[in-house]
Amino acid sequence: MAMPPVPSPRFLFGLAEAENSIFVVGGRELKDQEQTLDSVLVYDRQSFKWGESDPSPYPVYGHSTVSHNDVVYVLGGKGDNKSCLKKVCAYDAKRFEWKELAPMTTARSLFGAVVHKDKIYVAAGVTDTGLTDSVEVYDIKSNKWSESAVFPQERSSVNLVSLADSLYAVGGFGMMPLEDSDELVPKEMNDIWRYDETQKKWTGILREIQYASGATVLGVRLNTLRLTKM
Q1: Are 4 and 49 spatial neighbours (Cβ–Cβ below 8 Å)?
Q2: For the chain, N or C: smaller number of CB within 10 Å?
């Protein structure tokens, strides 16, 4: 069954689900001025209709969104001034209210985020000075951040997946030298890494996938999606 189109076209938005609804958070307008948005669109999967909830506390794009126990978390991204944000906020879909939470240690955009064992992991991404390999973990219960083992390479657009008690990182973009020179250029990465929680380090487990800009878990299989590059 085809869904009705999103009421307001946008890109670099966040996507999450809660209370049997799909949330489209922030992003930038597909218009000449590319205004940064704070609006939140909500698709009700029972009525098959789009609506709108209260706007997020601030306009944001290039952020990450995750959901846990019917709460949508909005992490990082960039604001109106195009600077990376440390900000974190959450929307309680049952109480219909936003709340600002403890900020991340590193301001970043275009990074990976996932809920893993009741904590939110964020990895790599873009900072105001370039790519980063830093990883930090948010404890939902205590509202506190802590540092974790760095990712093996500075990169953006990496995807994090939690599956069968393991944490995986998939694809993204890294800076790699050209074959005939030392010049660094962006390159699509085609590897998958798993985080070893005992040894506190990342280990590569597969290097054969095509470019993956999205990753989902269906059943007990890790699926990568080849999506159109922006």
Answers
A1: yes
A2: N
